[in-house]
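Internal ticket - ligand job 275, NAP:
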Amino acid sequence: MPADLPLNDGSALPALGFGLYKVAPDETGAVVAAGLEAGYRLIDGAELYGNERELGEALRRAADAPGFDREALTVTSKFWGEASQEPAAVRAAFDASERAVGRIDVYMIHWPRPARDRYVDVWRALVELHREGRVRTIGVSNFTEQHLERIIGETGVTPAVNQVESHPWLPQRELRAFHARHGIVTQAWSPLGRSRVLEDPTIGAIAERLGVSPAQAIIRWHLQTGGALVPKSTHPHRLRENLDVDRFALSDADMAAIAALETGERTGTHPDERN
Ligand SMILES: NC(=O)c1ccc[n+]([C@@H]2O[C@H](COP(=O)([O-])OP(=O)(O)OC[C@H]3O[C@@H](n4cnc5c(N)ncnc54)[C@H](OP(=O)(O)O)[C@@H]3O)[C@@H](O)[C@H]2O)c1
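stdout (structure tokens):
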């Protein structure tokens, strides 16, 4: 089990979790049960994923089992705000996610949506939820350096986490350096490049030499860069495989070979383009 990462709010974040984007509602219960059974301690959800009710039901079922420790588990949700980015809408969305899931430990702004120019006020609403003790940790997702500088400058509060697309083709070197200067943990979404990076021959060669799968090699790369990540799988054996990354290490030469794969290619939208 990879070590937890300390956060700037005094708590800590499990470095390796699993995500629920594009997990169908009728599959969510089984995926969450398999993830908990495998030993994950972080589940990455969001209002947008349309499966928070099923996530909550799975967590309530898990709580009935002997030995289940909810305190050891971190569950994330994210504010989407399609209809409104007003502070009241943030609070209503948080309340709805909390009702569905049972408890939210990390709450994020899902996208900055810069053309709407409301993300500073949305961040203020998250800061209030945090100050009221409604949520342990607040963070953002898909924020660039410029968006981060603005919310930090205008509110004086630095997010604990920024969840961004990152994988060997898009290592986000400069953003990670900015995060390091400001004490923000980088949490990678699409850490396997939506499975496309699994086909990369350099990754394949490293994985073969180490006797691990390409997914395990990539996950190990993320952990050795010092960041967090939330790969997704609907298959119990892959959920277990993705967590089984403690028994090997990438050498400096492996890390350098993976660093050379950077192309800047994204599998998702650039943060400035989503409104
Ligand atoms: N904040 C945001 O804007 C944002 C955006 C996108 C994603 N996310 C988060 O990031 C999570 C992961 O992102 P993602 O699903 O886009 O991409 P990903 O985790 O990079 O890739 C998922 C794909 O890899 C496959 N896979 C997983 N483990 C594997 C293994 N060991 N061997 C072979 N294939 C494997 C999965 O297939 P199977 O499922 O068939 O196993 C799925 O097709 C999401 O679930 C979500 O929580 C956040």
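Auto-summary: The radius of gyration is 18 Å. The longest helix spans residues 87-101.
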